[in-house]
Amino acid sequence: GDSVTQMEGPVTLSEEAFLTINCTYTATGYPSLFWYVQYPGEGLQLLLKATKADDKGSNKGFEATYRKETTSFHLEKGSVQVSDSAVYFCALSDLFRGAQKLVFGQGTRLTINP
Amino acid sequence: GAVVSQHPSWVICKSGTSVKIECRSLDFQATTMFWYRQFPKQSLMLMATSNEGSKATYEQGVEKDKFLINHASLTLSTLTVTSAHPEDSSFYICSAREGEGPYEQYFGPGTRLTVT
């Protein structure tokens, strides 16, 4: 079945460092891809999405490009801030028996030190 | 943006008892709600999908008689864990969908259940 694999955390960086969180997927169909972020004590929030190959999703300085040839959707940010500390989930949505469902990766905890 | 709340945020119960978790969409009507379970350091696993006024659709391997889901209104869904056991201890997260398409799911903050 469909699955999503993220780089294992936790990831700890200094403020203003460059961030990459790797995400690869396997899917039987042509999925849409997402990054969700979960701040402490809050629910998951959609960070960005891409619905077809070569699409780039971007939000709050984060970017990810849908790479069909490598089945990847890596999250990047050029200069992280302390406020970016959170858990990040890569996810895909695909049709399962006629219903759209989300499949999540295991999450990557990111801590940014000042 | 759309807000989804869960209550309680943390519950401890004794083995053999039942516990109910509520999921509410506060400022929109949720035609569909989803219940997920998350184990430590693992991803969210979809348990069931519920549509208002109809029976929930459970994922393979999820016991429908143990995890009772009710979606009685467009703003409220409940998950009842019946005859809870320590292995049911987990983090339960709901989400609600306002329109079509999975990217319109809005997530609650989760409920941590500990069964002693």
Task: Outline the fold blueprint.
The complex is a heterodimer of chains A (114) and B (116).
Chain A: E1 3-6, E2 11-14, E3 19-21, E4 23-26, E5 32-38, E6 45-50, E7 56-59, E8 62-65, E9 75-77, E10 86-96, E11 99-104, E12 108-113
Parallel strand pairs in A: 2-12
Antiparallel strand pairs in A: 1-4, 3-9, 5-6, 5-10, 7-8, 8-9, 10-11, 10-12
Chain B: E1 4-7, E2 10-13, E3 19-25, E4 32-38, E5 44-51, E6 57-58, E7 67-73, E8 76-81, E9 90-97, E10 105-107, E11 111-115
Parallel strand pairs in B: 2-11
Antiparallel strand pairs in B: 1-3, 3-8, 4-5, 4-9, 5-6, 7-8, 9-10, 9-11
By DSSP, the count of extended strands of chain A is 12
* Class derived from helix and strand content of chain B: mainly beta
| Biggest beta sheet summary of chain B | 7 strands, mixed
Largest sheet of chain A: 6 strands, mixed
Q: How would you spell out the order of helices and strands of chain A?
A: EEEEEEEEEEEE
Instruction: Indicate the overall shape of chain A.
Output: globular
Helix content of chain B: under 10%
Residue windows where pLDDT falls under 50 for at least 5 positions of chain A: none
Share of β-strand residues of chain B = over 45%
- The averaged pLDDT of chain B comes out at 90
**How far is the N terminus from the C terminus of chain B?**
37 Å
